Amino acid sequence: MLFSMPVDVAPLLLIVAAAAVILGTVLQRVSGMGVGLVVAPTLALLLGPVAGVLLTNLTTTVSAVLIGITLRHDIDWQRYVRLAPLIVVGSVPGALLVGAADRSWLEVIIGTALIGTLLMTALVRIPPVSGAVPAAMAGTAGGFLNTAVGVAAPAMLVYAQATNWQQRSFAATLQPIFFTMGLTSVITKVGLGAAPISGLPPLPVIGLVVAMVPIGLLVGGLVARRVTAEAGRKVAVVVVTAGALLLLARGVGGMAGVF
User: Fold this and answer.
1) Whether 240 contacts 37, CB under 8 Å
2) Domain spans of the chain, in order of start
3) Which secondary-structure segment (H or E) carries 97?
4) Among 184, 157, 192, 186, residue whose Cα is nearest residue 173
5) Which of 31, 77, 158, 186 is the right S-S partner for 232, CB 3.0 to 4.6 Å?
6) In which family does this protein belong, per the annotation (predicted)?
């Protein structure tokens, strides 16, 4: 089975994982988000929902640091301060969910959450809001989603649409937000025993996956000159929808005893 690779990882699966990280990093450099969207369903399919999302959290943390350095002049630190404190609040129930649910249920939850949040951002008209309460709700929802399913971008996108957040500032400020979410998710899940480090693939595999981030960043810098942020988001949505549907199908199949 693809999700059980504790020691030996097939070269083809490594190539798929590396390609997903590069694509996700390129999209994140172009539009501000993409690593979690692309990498989470891919690694969950390859490594299982617990180890896959945990490795996604690690990858997101690294990518956010590197991209954040590149976009540092456009970061809105006041918005970051409003969003960041509630990330921990949302992360704890996300970690408890990961620790309580079995593999098939987690795959169903991840697939459904990804598809549901993407549909919400695409189909639901978001009324304009402002103030501390929407920021607190976005931070809490983002922390929960990032810890449970490895993807917080849809929650941030809803908040950005509701507050009319300018794209340049939004893309830059997402990086310290994603860094905080990724680090918090790893600490919370490992600390609560929901996702033990021992469940990850060997260190060389982790190193290879994370090493794709700077490669994606270099490619993304070139692509960003020619591709709009909107086009980047559309590609991310297509990729994550395909991955989420596959993950959902496998989870349902596992619950039914097919896989």
Assistant:
1) yes
2) 11-255
3) helix 85-100
4) 157
5) 31
6) Belongs to the 4-toluene sulfonate uptake permease (TSUP) (TC 2.A.102) family.
